[in-house]
């Protein structure tokens, strides 16, 4: 079959093709007219960033840095064909805005002249105006100073009722490194952590506190950083106490097994006290003032006087009892005196670079109380001791430490009193 040859004449005889072709020509003609005869207009491009290049600048050669605001922007008015610049088609990246630092040779606030240009010089619009011909920038040398932090609590009512806020605030840091312009830092008086309490609190509560640097005239310093941060916060906990009346009790430590299951009797005077107790989310039914160690007990009546203000989480209230007396009654017991051999004394955490040598082979005159039958079974090998040197400052030559003594597998006997042992130490090279 013979193929038909292409004919432009025949193509234009096709009504559908002529319709599409005419539409395309019309659109091209319409676009050309819009571009050629589009009216001139003006638009404002907002928030165009200003570049301040400090590297190898005049201020940097004088040791000056820029402080404060560093995100400067300007609004630029441009004109051009509505078709080109209308409909927000021109954005901030179509411009280059720079601030000149060439005249900055001293500390202080300087007005920097702005230069505005098109990022692409061939762009088909004209820059008519811009909102700011100058920007004000502060320059100075950089300085640092270490400062203590004071806590300031603000609020109409911190606590209510029987609750008391303690001013011994708990903070996650006590000092801070203040950095900034040398002139400002030289005026530093103190750093304040401000806590805002909106509603009364009834338990110890942690807050985020804002830091501020205060000058010698009481004014807040400008352009300051704290540990390198511009707007840091720190944690401040306000301890809250509640006024309560509670009974007194005590515990025992180092007790032989018989006295764990059959605790000693004791009395408290007064039996109850009115104090302020730290509120940490737990209920307190009785106030434990001490753990009485058996090394302090001997047969008969043993009296102990405790200062309530030394008890953790307790504040003494003016006009109320500040001391309590505990009397512990120990039944009649037999008494024995023993020695402990130095080879029965174990040592832990001894420095690897030091020698440790006891100056005697035993500790003599150790008093033990208990029933006669168990006492008669004790000997120098039954008594043991453990010395932990982890927190002992050891010096060359003679050293003396307390020796925690115990009786192996004791049922009803205990060691009374405290004992020491001496040792010599030298550095090992």
Structure, explained:
The chain has helices at 8-12, 15-37, 58-61, 82-85, 182-186, 257-261, 372-376, and strands at 40-49, 65-67, 73-81, 95-99, 108-118, 126-130, 134-140, 142-154, 163-165, 170-171, 175-181, 188-196, 205-215, 225-226, 233-238, 240-253, 265-269, 272-278, 287-293, 300-307, 314-316, 323-330, 334-341, 345-348, 354-358, 362-370, 383-388, 397-402, 405-407, 414-416, 420-427. It folds into four domains: 40-140, RNA Polymerase Alpha Subunit, Chain A, domain 2; 142-238, YbbR-like domain (RNA Polymerase Alpha Subunit, Chain A, domain 2), CATH 2.170.120.40; 242-330, RNA Polymerase Alpha Subunit, Chain A, domain 2; 334-427, RNA Polymerase Alpha Subunit, Chain A, domain 2 (Beta Complex). By secondary structure, it is mostly beta strands. The model has no long low-confidence stretch (mean pLDDT 89). The protein has seven helices and 31 strands. The longest helix is centred in the first third of the chain and has 23 residues, at 15-37. The strands form eight sheets. A seven-stranded mixed beta sheet has the order 10-15-13-12-8-11-14. The chain is elongated.
Helix-strand blueprint:
Blueprint: H1 8-12, H2 15-37, E1 40-49, H3 58-61, E2 65-67, E3 73-81, H4 82-85, E4 95-99, E5 108-118, E6 126-130, E7 134-140, E8 142-154, E9 163-165, E10 170-171, E11 175-181, H5 182-186, E12 188-196, E13 205-215, E14 225-226, E15 233-238, E16 240-253, H6 257-261, E17 265-269, E18 272-278, E19 287-293, E20 300-307, E21 314-316, E22 323-330, E23 334-341, E24 345-348, E25 354-358, E26 362-370, H7 372-376, E27 383-388, E28 397-402, E29 405-407, E30 414-416, E31 420-427
């Amino acid at each position: 079959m013979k193929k038909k040859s292409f004919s432009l004449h025949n193509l234009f005889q096709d009504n559908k093709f002529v319709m599409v072709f005419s539409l395309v020509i019309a659109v091209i003609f319409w676009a050309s007219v819009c571009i050629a005869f589009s009216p001139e207009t003006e638009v404002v491009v907002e928030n165009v960033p200003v570049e301040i290049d400090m590297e190898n600048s005049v201020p940097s050669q004088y040791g000056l840095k820029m402080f404060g605001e560093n995100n400067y922007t300007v609004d630029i008015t441009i004109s051009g064909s509505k078709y080109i610049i209308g409909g927000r088609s021109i954005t901030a990246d179509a411009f280059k805005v720079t601030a000149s630092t060439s005249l900055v040779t001293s500390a202080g606030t300087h007005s920097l002249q702005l230069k505005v240009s098109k990022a692409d010089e061939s762009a088909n619009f004209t820059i008519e105006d811009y909102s700011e011909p100058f920007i004000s920038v502060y320059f100075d040398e950089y300085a640092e100073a270490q400062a203590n932090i004071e806590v300031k609590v603000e609020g109409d009512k911190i606590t209510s009722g029987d609750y008391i806020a303690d001013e011994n605030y708990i903070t996650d840091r006590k000092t801070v490194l203040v950095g900034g312009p040398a002139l400002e830092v030289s005026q530093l008086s103190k750093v304040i952590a401000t806590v805002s309490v909106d509603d009364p609190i009834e338990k110890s509560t942690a807050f985020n506190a804002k830091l501020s640097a205060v000058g010698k005239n009481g004014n807040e310093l400008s352009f300051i950083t704290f540990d390198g941060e511009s707007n840091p916060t720190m944690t401040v906990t306000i301890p809250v106490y509640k006024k309560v009346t509670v009974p007194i009790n005590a515990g025992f430590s180092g007790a032989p097994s018989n006295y764990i299951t059959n605790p000693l009797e004791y009395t408290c005077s007064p039996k109850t006290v009115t104090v302020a107790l730290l509120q940490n989310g737990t209920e307190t039914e009785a106030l434990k003032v001490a753990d009485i160690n058996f090394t302090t007990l001997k047969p008969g009546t043993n009296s102990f006087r405790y200062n309530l203000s030394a008890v953790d989480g307790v504040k003494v209230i003016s006009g109320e009892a500040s001391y309590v007396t505990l009397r512990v009654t120990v039944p009649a017991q037999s008494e024995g005196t023993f020695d402990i051999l130095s080879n029965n004394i174990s040592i832990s955490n001894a420095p690897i670079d030091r020698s440790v040598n006891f100056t005697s082979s035993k500790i003599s005159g150790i008093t033990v109380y208990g029933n006669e039958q168990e006492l008669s079974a004790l000997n120098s090998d039954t008594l043991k001791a453990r010395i932990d040197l982890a927190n002992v400052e050891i010096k060359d030559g003679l050293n003396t430490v307390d020796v925690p003594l115990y009786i192996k597998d004791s049922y009803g006997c205990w060691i009374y009193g405290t004992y020491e042992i001496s040792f010599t130490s030298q550095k090992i090279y």
